[in-house]
Amino acid sequence: MRNRNGSLGGEASDDQEESMACRGATNSGELLSDATYELPFTHKFSGKAREDHYAQQRGDWPFPDVDTVDYQKFLTHRDAARHGRMLANIPASYTFLEGNYSIQFVGGLYYSTIDVGTPSVPFLVALDTGSDLFWLPCECQSCAPTSSPIYEDYGITNALNVYSPTDSNTSKTIACASDECHLYINQCDANGGGECLYKVNYASVNTSTSGRLVEDVIHLIPNDGEPTPTTVPIVLGCGQMQTGSFIDGYGAPDGLIGLGFQNYSVPALLANSGLVKDSFSMCFGPDFSGRVVFGDIGSATQTSTPFLRVQPGSYDTYFVGVEAIDVGTDSITVGEPALFDTGTTYSYLNSSTYQQLLTSFDKQNTDYTRIPVGSEEIQPWELCYLTTDAIIKTPSIDYVLNGKVPFSVKFPFVPLIYQNRTRAGFCLAIFESNANIIGVNFMVGLNLIFNREERTLGFEETDCSSLQANSGAGPAPESGGPVTGPKAPTPSPSRRPPPSSNTTPGPGASPAPSGASNIAAFSLATGLALAIVHILL
């Protein structure tokens, strides 16, 4: 049995103790379905992990410095592993299969602590919008180790837990003949055991989880000052057998919460219980920590675009339509879907669109000297420029989503920083692929609303760190925190300018000159912070 203390680094801080369960907000007198429940998350390569590593005198940090090209290369390898088939020269449709087995994207980039069972046991689980099943290591035949030097490098100093159905008073076996089994994965025990078995294959090579489905409870703590946790029944996988990335320490060693579109994902199960609306939000701060809020439908001021069906009659994952990409004064017709994926670091475009974007951007970006393609110092990037300026002004980049919805990219660059810590320039952080993926580097500073009930993606610029700081026990804040229903805009200097302007100054940057509507001003100091964020992935 694993040590039940899954805190990060020695004694748990107040923030860590708060993260041991979901937190939410509801107004007195409202229906329970109008509540929201928040789950703070942190990246496993976060600055906190690095601080803990040095505080425990474990020697040098085992990864490249966060603001170097070497670490950016490391991140692209992680993206490639996550989307192994999608980012290869294989049609994207190969990532989905009909039948008992489902192909899903591998998770493991973000984690949070959630309490399961009675008595409650904490688990440090990965969060993934690209998959659906909630599973925990359980009755292990092949699981990740309970402790590892790799975890210690992430700042996880205490042993992780293994879920034990027999130790939980609220655990129930799901029978093969039950409605729940057929509603979810629908794979029965061929040996006649009567248990509802499951297996999920992920896109990462040889990566899967398998075991049996059980019912138990998770514990959510409201944000309205009520100290008593809310107990919610939920279906989860008792993960007896993990393979690939799930056992090498780089995937989800203590389980995974699927946030995908299927009816057995955690958001769907919470909504079906009547606890919250069938919607959730994710917000990423500049250090890639943040929170996921179950039941959040966003604000009246947010912009929205519809999700697309991948196959006729079904919504498999969070695809949106991209009509065009505006680059400065040029408009590039796209007319294809793009995946909003919170588990991918960078953003990707199909070959034709990618080449058009690079050509258009380079043609208009005349104030900086381009570094020759193939130069070793800029790999893996293709479009890089020399400058020592802290503030750069380049052609703006705006996605036009279905319905003529603008999605402005505020920070499309990574700074080019060499090992001697000198600023050399900047690179466009987009890669060529056979699929269009909007990664987290285009989502920083946004509150993303995955409204599954309305089948829409909402977004607006938000001070995610303030939202995170305002979460926790006690009354809901007047502004800046999750509230029920449409909420007033958060007072924040980072809020999006009116749609008539494409000027997007980064923090500390001066606005672009009046009339320069197709020029965006970017702070490379902000870009540096974003590069650190990227490296934490």
Briefly say what this structure is.
This protein is an alpha+beta fold and 537 residues long. 15% of the residues lie in helices and 32% in strands.
Describe the structure.
The chain has 537 residues and is of the alpha+beta class. Helices cover 15% and strands 32% of the residues. The protein has two domains: 14-65 and 92-294, Acid Proteases (Cathepsin D, subunit A, domain 1, Beta Barrel); 303-536, Cathepsin D, subunit A, domain 1 (Beta Barrel), CATH 2.40.70. It is built from nine helices and 30 strands. Residues 1-32, 84-108, 468-517 and 526-537 have low confidence and may be disordered. The active site is at 128, 341. Keywords: Aspartyl protease, Hydrolase, Protease. Residues 1-25, 461-515 are annotated as: Disordered.
